[in-house]
Amino acid sequence: MTVTIAFGDMTLPRTGTLIVGALADRALTKTAAAVDKRMQGALARAIRASRFTGAEGQFLEVLEPQGMQCSRIIVAGMGKPEAFDALKAEAIGGGVIGRLNGAGETAAMVALDVPAGCKLTAAQVAAHVGYGADLGSYRFDRYRTKVKPEQKPTLETLTVGCEDAAGARRLHAPLGEVARGVELSRNLVSEPANVIYPVSMAAEARKLSRLGAKVEVLGRERMRKLGMGALLGVAQGSEREPQLVIMRWQGGGRRRPIAFVGKGVTFDTGGISIKPAAGMEDMKWDMAGAGVVVGLMRALAGRKAKVNAVGVVGLVENMPSATAQRPGDVVTSMSGQTIEVINTDAEGRLVLADAVWYTQKRFKPEVMIDLATLTGAIIVALGSQHAGLFANDDGLAEGLIAAGTAVGERLWRLPVDDSYADDIRSDIADVKNVGANRSAGSIAGAKFIELFVNKVPWAHLDIAGVAWSKKDKPTVPKGGTGFGVRLLDRFVAERYER
Length: 498
Ligand code: BES
Ligand code: MN
Ligand code: ZN
Description:
Layout: E1 4-8, E2 17-23, E3 27-28, H1 30-38, H2 42-48, E4 59-63, E5 72-77, H3 86-103, E6 107-111, H4 122-136, E7 157-161, H5 165-190, H6 198-206, E8 214-218, H7 220-226, H8 229-235, E9 243-250, E10 258-268, H9 288-302, E11 308-318, E12 330-332, E13 338-340, H10 348-363, E14 367-372, H11 377-382, E15 387-391, H12 394-407, E16 411-413, E17 431-432, H13 441-450, E18 458-462, E19 468-469, E20 479-480, H14 485-496
The structure holds ligand BES, manganese (II) ion and zinc ion (ZN).
The site of zinc ion has 5 residues, from β10.
């Protein structure tokens, strides 16, 4: 993102910063021990003089180390060798980035040895350190015109040393493409709603054709002809024309595709059921589901995944105006089911109703996964530690949970069984768009979407609590997270490319 990631051998650098590893209980790795010897034991003494124990997440810095040619050494805690995995390697890569930029460093080299007992190869460790550094160096500063020189990131190149540099490079290549997908998703989510609106977001998605994806965009008239009354009802209060974008990556021969559908409300005022002013600016990221689908398609096309994937995003702006839909309006969805719009702020499910129906009808996907910042209630239930998962298929749910755990994007499954169907029954239409009261709000949303999936194996990810982060983490700087890109890329790789 802002740093060039390179791979080289384990020759120690003559300038810049050197990063070496220590294991739990202050055990130095091979390179750290060699450095300590050159420093006549000063590294081990520095460790003893501090609270550094080698636990994961810890770093110790030594400036101008005696006996060394480089200007700084950072010892990174790796924890216990048996527990050291790809995510921990990524966290070191990301953690180092923040420190080096803060220190004004321009060049650095990571020289982590793989400890005995660790399940990763040297190439895997190096590739994931590089990947973590890439993800962690993300910044969104397009609109900051007055950044002082001392606040600007300084690090230009991070070299990751490895006995098998060629192997590390080979493993890192597809991860780099996933990082580009995460970056695209974060950019789309972070852009304000006067810059990213349905037509401009569709234009960004169109750029995926450069990577060999096929992109189609349907406007208002095409959607009207298809009968997408639910999506168009949300859009009707806005000056901005709604768009339905269909992205296809055909890397899997003749198999049926796997489909991803995203909620893309480029700004959610609530409509006539208007939201309170406090915090309403957050609703620029109500298109995160769509942003993740676009980023995921970028990742799959970029790394030429051996899968047939379809990404469909419904892009609308939810505004109050003289033309906006009213609470109580009844709209007819493309499926033919009629919907009583009790609350115009429950708009995401209306957009998805048509997007999901269209996707299953046209593409007959093997599975369909939708992503949406659908409910505030999921934040109340799960905070930002897990996204909500709803599914009509246990195998699909398990596969998604496993993929999420592996990449550090965790899911928690909630029920969508038929005992919740009554909550959204309407007196005058087939269904209404909110539950009876405030109970089980996220489930009511999922149950509503399920009415439009037509029995396809389906999962719904409510990402309202995880799409945006208020604090920096090593591989996820605060702001748009891109949550879901890595998870679904992993899911595709595990389930469709093996
Ligand atoms: N986009 C919101 C959900 C949301 C809220 C996302 C806060 C992120 C942070 C969604 O369109 C919405 O307004 N949902 C309503 C549904 C309710 C009216 C049934 C909600 O959660 O309050
Ligand atoms: Mn809303
Ligand atoms: Zn919304």
